[in-house]
């Protein structure tokens, strides 16, 4: 599975929809996750470095110190609207499976650069078939601005102002806002 993107959940307040896509396929798997996990996934996707390690970064550092690697993540169950996952870990000698919330497993998969898998039965039960690539991009591109019911445009700000806003957003751990400011700065290069 590939991470296609995230959007603010229209169905659950304070939640986000993480969209996974079938590798070389047209099926999508929408998974509702919490705000903290969405932030942890988004900052790793955007390669934003935080002043202090977040929980998933701490877990990665801890695992590295003890020579443990997460080799893959498997979304192994879907029951009553809830996805379940496991981390497949190794120390080079023994392979262990560890239960995990799917959102945490995805956040760790990004940090360990490992693949995410699921079963055909889960894609059949919870997947959505997309006829065109653009069908999924519209909801995924919606950002945190919609959460507040407003649209924020960074196009009207000067580059110097944007750099200050970016620094401030990172310092206050507003990572979704920081990624949007960064995107606007990248457009100007």
Task: Summarize the topology.
Blueprint lengths: L1 E7 L6 E7 L5 E8 H11 L9 H11 L3 E11 L2 E9 L4 E7 H11 L2 E4 L1 H7 L1 E2 L4 H8 L17 H13 L3 H13 L2
Parallel strand pairs: 4-7
Antiparallel strand pairs: 1-2, 2-3, 3-8, 4-5, 5-6
Question: Which keywords apply here?
Answer:
Bifunctional nuclease domain; 189 residues; 39% helix; 4-stranded antiparallel sheet; 7 helices; 4-stranded mixed sheet; single chain; alpha+beta
Task: Tell me how many strands there are.
Answer: 8
CATH architecture of the largest domain: Roll
Shape: globular
- Looking at the structure, the CATH topology of the largest domain is Bifunctional nuclease domain
**Number of structurally distinct domains:** 2
Helical amount among residues, as a percent range?
25-40%
CATH homologous superfamily (4th level) name of the largest domain: Bifunctional nuclease domain
Radius of gyration: 18 Å
Largest sheet: 4 strands, antiparallel
Q: What is the average of the pLDDT values?
A: 82
Task: Estimate the strand proportion.
Answer: 25-35%
SSE-based structural type: alpha+beta
Intertermini distance: 32 Å
User: Largest beta sheet: what is the strand line-up?
Assistant: 1-2-3-8
Number of helical segments with 4 or more residues: 7
CATH class assignment of the largest domain:
Alpha Beta
Poorly predicted regions are 133-151
Helix and strand string, N-terminal first? EEEHHEEEHEHEHHH
